[in-house]
Amino acid sequence: MPAARDLRELLALLEERGQLRRVRAELSPVLEIPEVLRRVMRRRGPALLFERVRGYPGWRVAGNLFGTLERIKLALGAERLEEIGERLTRALAGPPPMGLLEKLRGLREALDLARYAPRQARRAAFEDTVLEGGEASLERIPAFKTWPRDGGRYITFGQVYTVDPATGVTNIGVYRVMVRGPREAVVHWQLHKRGQQAYREAGERAWERLPVAVVVGSDPATMLAGVMPVPYPLDKLLFAGVMAGRGVEVYRLPSGVPVPASAELVIEGYVEPGREAPEGPFGDHWGYYDRPARRFPVLTVERIWLRRGPVYVGTVVGKPPMEDAAIGKAVERIFLPIVRLLLPEVVDMNLPEHGVFQGIGIVSIRKRYPGQAKKVMMALWGLGQMALTKILIVVDHDVDVHDLNQVLWAVAAHVDPQRDVVVVPGTHTDELDPAAPYPGYGSKLGIDATRKLLEENNGRPWPEEVEPDPETARKIDRIWSSLGIDAGG
Ligand SMILES: Cc1cc2nc3c(=O)[nH]c(=O)nc-3n(C[C@H](O)[C@H](O)[C@H](O)COP(=O)(O)O)c2cc1C
């Protein structure tokens, strides 16, 4: 099944599969809808469509669309999410085509990449209503207040579109956006993110304005592309096409920013390098309110575009697991082939939901040489957003990284703390990490839980692992059912 073409197609598909519930009670986007969403996310329940939104006649609100991996796969029309990363790596890795047939196959794969490129749409769904001047007020939008001490109303699942001044590539980032007034908002793109990079580039070029568009509710591939840690400067619209399996239809706004033609809501505006305002507090995905307000760029609204009968999409973050835990898992699966292209010894990885994605990462490797586990740690701490992972645990290839009990066994049985634990002080870290001494600056912990080679073990061979006697095991296999143990004996 192909990826859904817009939000409404996705809602219909989820409803058909019994994965969407409609809520008819009238609820407010201030605390009430977020509280219902929070409870449903905790239970890994269905997507919700709120049909009556207090104070916002004509609007509907959707949430928890991506609360399970199954729904994400359904939305993207992918049986395996790794398939998406493989579409990219296939084009780059593998022996060069030699024979004619192989050359033709290589050509087809190159054409495949072109097939994922964005396509220009003549019309956009959101042209139904265009609000300008005083009409273009953010007060018309059912932005959430998610936690009682949040510093204001937030667009929590908006995709922030920018065109990079240095490269011309489009970025899509899911960054929270705080409503500051009818025509002003604050964009929370963090230090290590591509949105902030575009902003810095604009400042260095002495641009007076960097055009920005905030999109809410589009086809699921572009919504999720905003969360993907795509290496700079790969175009995120192209990556969204790779995720959808076809090019995204885009509409170029008067400001020049391309946005998906299927969007429900587009806020068009600009940020001015140097013009910043306090942002927060906000209850974030670590389960804490952020530190006291820090400054981020002010977005000035020029135009608001709306599809008729608009459907707003919002999410809530907090102590895991919430919707973003499932989205984090999808990122892990999609990027595994790309990590493996760069670090071929990597077998699998697990960014456990309760480890807050950037808190703890577990990686299994096929180890060949001494020190390799630490080499993998150093590589990952330098690789895109994997670099923000605070604690890395490296295990051997035969440990299932998704079985935390197996991982604990490997840590308990294979780690000599003095030899196998590294603490790297004074490093980059996630800006929101509540334990870091300074936002964006902290330290790393690496645990090498692989079996040690001679060189790593003072020249002593690693002990022999207990295994059943094969002949006895075969015999017991044959008579196992007759022992009646499985039947509760
Ligand atoms: C619900 C949700 C909210 C997020 N909010 C922010 C945010 O406020 N700021 C931020 O920098 N990243 C935020 N992220 C993470 C980014 O979307 C993610 O790091 C993404 O890869 C950024 O894209 P970029 O590499 O193009 O900057 C959020 C993710 C989710 C799922």
UniProtKB/TrEMBL annotation:
<dbReference type="InterPro" id="IPR049383">
    <property type="entry name" value="UbiD-like_N"/>
</dbReference>
<dbReference type="GO" id="GO:0016831">
    <property type="term" value="F:carboxy-lyase activity"/>
</dbReference>
<dbReference type="GO" id="GO:0005737">
    <property type="term" value="C:cytoplasm"/>
</dbReference>
<dbReference type="Pfam" id="PF01977">
    <property type="entry name" value="UbiD"/>
</dbReference>
<feature type="domain" description="3-octaprenyl-4-hydroxybenzoate carboxy-lyase-like N-terminal">
    <location>
        <begin position="11"/>
        <end position="88"/>
    </location>
</feature>
<dbReference type="Pfam" id="PF20695">
    <property type="entry name" value="UbiD_N"/>
</dbReference>
<protein>
    <submittedName>
        <fullName>Menaquinone biosynthesis decarboxylase</fullName>
    </submittedName>
</protein>
<feature type="domain" description="3-octaprenyl-4-hydroxybenzoate carboxy-lyase-like Rift-related">
    <location>
        <begin position="123"/>
        <end position="320"/>
    </location>
</feature>
<feature type="domain" description="3-octaprenyl-4-hydroxybenzoate carboxy-lyase-like C-terminal">
    <location>
        <begin position="327"/>
        <end position="449"/>
    </location>
</feature>
<dbReference type="InterPro" id="IPR002830">
    <property type="entry name" value="UbiD"/>
</dbReference>
<comment type="similarity">
    <text>Belongs to the UbiD family.</text>
</comment>
<dbReference type="InterPro" id="IPR048304">
    <property type="entry name" value="UbiD_Rift_dom"/>
</dbReference>
<dbReference type="Pfam" id="PF20696">
    <property type="entry name" value="UbiD_C"/>
</dbReference>
<dbReference type="InterPro" id="IPR049381">
    <property type="entry name" value="UbiD-like_C"/>
</dbReference>
